[in-house]
């Protein structure tokens, strides 16, 4: 009999420790604390869109569509340049940034919105020639920071993309 009472107490204690069931409003697609009422993605510090981690072109296009102001056009240009240069490119959104890679080879590039610029990360950028200008704490990674007034040398950026796609990529 003592065993039955102990089992009942443990079950009751477990039930009390569990979080309450999710409200029906969330199941019905109503806004949550993380999604504003208008359904648009939340912009994090620097205007970086908060997009759920997912593979595919759809999440990347959602990220680009949510980029604020001039950065949206830049995101479209970068995405189009990457697709032209690496037609079979693999895409995903991870850590609130679009990632580009080659199937089975890892990721070669990502970009991220900051307040005044967009940072393009070449994960094996130290192997690119000429070197992309921005240094990183990671000796392999190099950056290209693009500001609103900057003219993009699409030939050079496209060459870096091509070179980066030919290298073994970064695998998290």
From TrEMBL:
Domain of life according to the entry: Bacteria
Residue numbers spanned by region Disordered: 1-58
InterPro entries (UniProt xref): YdhG-like
Bias kind Low complexity: ranges: 1-36
Domain YdhG-like span(s) in chain numbering: 71-164
Native organism: Cupriavidus cauae
Protein name: DUF1801 domain-containing protein
Annotated coiled-coil segments of the chain: none
Classification via Pfam families: DUF1801
């Amino acid at each position: 009999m003592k065993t039955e009472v102990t089992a009942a107490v443990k079950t009751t204690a477990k039930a009390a420790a569990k979080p309450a069931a999710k409200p029906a409003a969330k199941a019905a697609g109503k806004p949550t604390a993380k999604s504003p009422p208008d359904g648009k993605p939340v912009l994090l510090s620097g205007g970086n869109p908060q997009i759920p981690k997912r593979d595919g072109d759809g999440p990347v296009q959602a990220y680009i569509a949510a980029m604020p102001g001039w950065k949206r056009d830049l995101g479209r240009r970068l995405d189009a340049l990457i697709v032209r240069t690496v037609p079979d490119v693999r895409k995903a959104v991870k850590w609130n940034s679009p990632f580009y890679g080659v199937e089975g080879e890892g990721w070669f590039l990502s970009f991220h919105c900051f307040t005044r610029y967009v940072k393009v990360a070449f994960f094996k950028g130290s192997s690119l020639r000429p070197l992309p200008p921005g240094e990183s704490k990671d000796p392999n990674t190099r950056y290209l920071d693009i500001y609103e007034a900057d003219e993009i040398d699409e030939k050079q950026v496209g060459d870096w993309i091509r070179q980066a796609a030919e290298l073994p990529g970064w695998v998290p």
